[in-house]
Amino acid sequence: MANEELEALRVAITETDNDLLATIAKRQKLTHQVAETKIKHHIQVRDQVREEQLLVRLIKQGQEVGLDPHFVTKLFHVIIEDSVLNQQSLLAQRANPEASLPINRVAFLGEKGSYSYLATQKYFARRSGELVEIGCKSFPDIIATVESNEADFAVLPIENTSSGSINEVYDQLQHTRLSIIGELTHEINHALLIHEDVELGKIKTLYAHPQVFAQCSHFLAELGNIEVKPCDSTSAAMLVVNELKSPEVAAIGSEGGGRLYGLKAVKSKLANQKENHSRFIVVARNPIKVPLQVPAKTTMIMSTVQSPGALVDALTVLKDNDIAMTKLESRPINGNPWEEMFYIDVEGNIEDGPMQKAVESLRDMTRYFKILGCYPVEDVAPTRVAVASSLTQ
Ligand SMILES: C=C(O[C@@H]1C=C(C(=O)O)C=C[C@H]1O)C(=O)O
């Protein structure tokens, strides 16, 4: 009897969920039309005034039907983020028809289940065309695969909130002819993964990528006397544990990835930082044009002349042109001891006037200067509304 009652309610919930999906799909189609209109009339994709107005109205209307303002705000932040990213992606694809391929061959580190694999899936979900995944063993292999035209794109992790910059990838960028055409941030939730058929006993050996060990150093210190074995990728670590089927071994990787290898997660959130995210870049053989209606970022590398204040002078050029720097990184130059290559991320489109002026000055005053790429910003900062005040309106 209780079961029948529950079943009937669940049928009604299923129907409501289906209606919700249909409504969200309808909204998405409308925002697609909005993007077409913005292309035609050269209007900026993001309109935070409009977002604020709609959030205030929805919070109020939600409250009238008994919905918590925080819930409504959170829900619509997700919906708006998706809408903005889809519109940006459409504009970028229209501006670069030659880069919109029927088949996207994408190189990444590891195999199915690695974090790079998950990031690849996420980035290419918004692009048209079929996805062909090409798993690689190392960062140089990934770059070579795109340079030799065996792949069209590569997805590479560049920095992580727990372990910082991924130097190996920065070093690869110094020598490649490839351009950065996109970026994305992906949550990295490290879990302890063991084979499904074994009981969690005394783990003696842990398999993972060296980056993972770096991000989980506090957890490893707690574990004490355990042998850590570095692998080429998190998916390679999962494969080893799957094959060994021993209660004494475990891998660290994503829970979803582990499932693909018959592994279960027995502990999660293992990284030193609670908020553990990685930023990935997407590279291709040719640069792309970013429409001026889309927020853009530009990455450049340079080595300055060896005189006091040379780096300060270079950074002053950015300041004088009102260009905001979002990241500054330095790496040694191979073969030139004690000389540094600076990697600079700035907000701005390479086709914008102030950016062109700054680039011209930087080319003149540095020993080496190269633009690594200009690409759409994937980070959609949520529009904040004062929840309490909107309720009193
Ligand atoms: C859909 C639009 O584009 C963006 C997305 C919005 C949304 O999904 O509601 C609102 C404003 C814009 O930032 C729009 O301009 O109306």
Which terms summarize this structure?
alpha/beta; 4 domains; six-stranded mixed β-sheet; five-stranded mixed β-sheet; 393 residues; binds ligand ISJ; Chorismate Mutase Domain, subunit A; D-Maltodextrin-Binding Protein, domain 2; 15 strands
Q: Can you describe what's shown?
A:
There is one protein chain. The strands form three sheets. Strands 1, 2, 3, 4, 5 and 11 form a six-stranded mixed sheet that branches. This protein has a five-stranded mixed sheet with strand order 8-7-9-6-10. Strands 13-14-12-15 form a four-stranded antiparallel sheet, sandwiched between helices. It has helices at 2-41, 48-64, 69-95, 115-124, 139-147, 167-175, 210-215, 217-223, 234-244, 255-260, 310-320, 353-365, 387-392, and strands at 103-109, 130-136, 153-160, 164-165, 179-187, 191-195, 205-208, 227-230, 249-253, 263-267, 277-284, 296-304, 325-333, 336-347, 366-376. Strand 3 (153-160) and strand 4 (164-165) form a beta hairpin. The protein is globular and about 80 Å long. It starts with a helix and ends with a helix. Helices cover 44% and strands 27% of the residues. The protein folds into four domains: 2-96, Chorismate Mutase Domain, subunit A (Up-down Bundle); 98-188 and 277-284, D-Maltodextrin-Binding Protein, domain 2, CATH 3.40.190; 193-267, D-Maltodextrin-Binding Protein, domain 2 (3-Layer(aba) Sandwich); 296-376, Alpha-Beta Plaits (2-Layer Sandwich). It has 393 residues and is α/β, with parallel strands linked by helices. The site of ligand ISJ has 11 residues, from helix 1, helix 2 and helix 3. Ligand ISJ is lined by residues 31, 34, 46-47, 50-51, 54, 80, 83-84, 87.
